[in-house]
Ribosomal protein S18 acetylase RimI-like enzyme (Propionicimonas paludicola), 179 residues
Amino acid sequence: MDAQEPDGPLQVVTLGASRYPEVLAVLRAGFDTVREQFGITAQNNPHYPVYWTVGDVARAVARPARLLGVEVDSRVAGCAFVGPSRRREGCWELRHLAVDPEHRHRGLGRLLVTEAAAHAAADGAEALRIGIVAENRRLSDWYHGLGFVDVSCGESYPPLPFTVDHLELPLAAKVDMSI
Ligand SMILES: CC(C)(COP(=O)(O)OP(=O)(O)OC[C@H]1O[C@@H](n2cnc3c(N)ncnc32)[C@H](O)[C@@H]1OP(=O)(O)O)[C@@H](O)C(=O)NCCC(=O)NCCS
């Protein structure tokens, strides 16, 4: 579950309420790049994490979900929410995965996905599910490289300015750490 860094391995930790303001900053910065790219606004997607408050972080945890984080220099640099699906027995969902743009391309995202899959598998789940912006092909390719498979593609949820793909990681399979 570790990625090797010059100062030692990065680790995923479960974050409590005192870290919510840091998580909020990561979510806002992390999803701002997507907002710009795909034309998301407060009008067409008011619940997008860019527009969240600390109260929304607490609500995401209360679904319930575990709030996972990776720290760099003792500050939260990446986060993800993982918990049981409310729609499907035996399935967990990964939501709001974000890495601060300053800390991308160092394996933090992959580490968070790996740890989320481990939490789901430890609970006996058979799959870890995500919903992504379908037009974000780079993201989709990345998840496919980690072992996720498409389960539905191009669903529209007006007024969202993008369509949504759902992907699942079968938990009998492990995330491929070699890429
Ligand atoms: C997706 C994300 C979490 C990956 O974080 P990361 O720490 O950079 O991930 P890793 O270092 O493990 O892997 C990097 C790879 O992610 C892939 N990737 C996925 N989305 C990407 C994006 N929007 N821009 C650039 N690379 C992206 C690339 O293949 C990249 O490979 P590279 O480093 O060779 O360029 C991060 O890009 C992010 O926060 N994006 C915005 C929020 C988002 O789309 N979250 C997903 C919600 S389902």
